[in-house]
Each structure stands twice: as C-alpha cells, then as structure tokens.
Write a structure and sequence with these properties.
globular
Length: 227
C-alpha cells in the first residue's frame, strides 16, 4: 500500500491549526490525507477544534459544549480565521479526510453527516475513545475506522480489533517493531504521530509503517533514504 503523509490539523506547523486556512494549504501542498478534530457545540454543530476549550487556540474562553455555533463564530482562531464546522472543511478541500472524534458524543452526528452527504468513502473516522470507534463501526459498517493511542502496550491491538477498527494511529515515541509486526499480522494498518523530523520519518519507514501524521508539509517530499 501507499505510504500516506497525513496533515496534522491541516498543517499546524505553518498555519493556525484546525482552520480553513490550514486545511486549504495542506490540500495545496499535496498532503495525502487531512486530519482534523471534532467536538459538538451546545447546539449540536460538528465543530473543528482539538481542545475541549477554546482558550488555547482562540481569543475566547470556555468549553465548546457550552457555546453555540454563533458564539464560537465570533472568536478569532488565528490570523483572523474563524472556527470551522466539519461540512465546511469537506467543501473546501479535495483530499481525503481523517476525522478524529474528541467528544464521543459526536459519533452519531458525524455518522449522520457522512450518510447524508455520501462521504463514507472519503472520510476515515478515528478516536482515542474505543466506544466511539465501536459505535461508528456499528452505525456505518462501511466507514474505515481507527483507534488512536498515546500510552499503550501490545494490548492496543486487541482493543482495536474489539472496536472493529482497521487502523492503529500511535505515538511514535512508544512504537516498537514487534507491535507493528503483530498489528500487520492481525490485518491492521499502522500510522505514527507526530512525525516532524527526517530522523523520525526514517524510523517510520524502517518499521514499515503505513503512514505518518506531521505538522509540516515539506516532510512529504523528504527522501525515503538519507543521502
């Protein structure tokens, strides 16, 4: 299979994360897949933001789930960008999308949008929440899903299989060749995050990973073998 370079929150190393500006640049730079994060607003909108609170990435404060979409739209998400909703990102870019469910409650809302807009082939759904991955697999069996993990052991393979995931998206700092080999043997694809240096990219290739998530678009064009 093709080695995928996945744009982390767009290209957050060079643009404000999880904004249309970041996603459009990731698309223009030729990233294979664009990753984003989803929460539900107070009024049920699929809001694209990593944190549960708006404090770090906007000029506002408070929890997303306590704010309406109209209130969220008033905030500056960096360089004058507004907080987008999932549907806007889908319309703004052509690349495949990897949607990470941060709020497990967003799974059903996302499934509804994917169905209504015919996006089941274009969007892969991932999450740290096993239950969100399992729910998505039940709601939309044809949608590709993945389990994300930061601190994990070999048991993460069984967790992914139990949730009917086809992908493991794992913190590269804890990744071992044994885990990758066992995951592949179990039929799982494996990608690593966050890979931002040529050295980590070489590690990813050496482990025969299926792809990486990166903050920097230029990593896509880094030679596989060092000079």
């Amino acid at each position: 299979m093709t080695f995928l370079t996945i744009g982390h929150r767009g290209v957050m190393g060079v643009e404000p994360e999880n904004t249309l500006r970041s996603f459009v640049r990731a698309d223009r730079e030729g990233l294979d897949v664009i990753e984003l994060d989803l929460h539900l607003s107070k009024d049920g909108a699929l809001v694209v933001m990593h944190d549960a609170e708006v404090d770090r990435t906007t000029d506002g404060s408070g929890r997303i789930r306590d704010l309406t979409l109209a209130e969220l739209r008033e905030l500056d998400a960096g360089q004058g960008e507004r907080i987008p909703v999932f549907e806007e990102v889908v319309d703004a870019v052509k690349a495949p999308i990897q949607a990470e469910i941060k709020d497990a409650a967003a799974a059903r809302a996302l499934a509804d949008v994917l169905t209504e807009r015919g996006l089941t082939d274009r969007v892969e759904v991932i999450s740290f929440h096993d239950e969100a991955v399992a729910e998505m697999a039940t709601l939309l069996p044809d949608v590709r899903t993945g389990l994300v993990a930061s601190r994990y052991g070999l048991d993460v393979i069984d967790r992914a299989l139990a949730a009917e995931a086809g992908l493991l998206a794992l913190n590269i700092r804890r990744l071992t060749l044994e885990l990758v080999d066992r995951a592949h043997a179990a039929g799982l694809r494996v990608t690593a995050w966050t890979v931002n240096t040529p050295e980590h990219l070489q590690v990813a290739h050496g482990m025969d990973l299926d792809g990486i998530t990166t903050d920097y678009p230029e990593l896509k064009n880094t030679p596989r073998d060092p000079a």
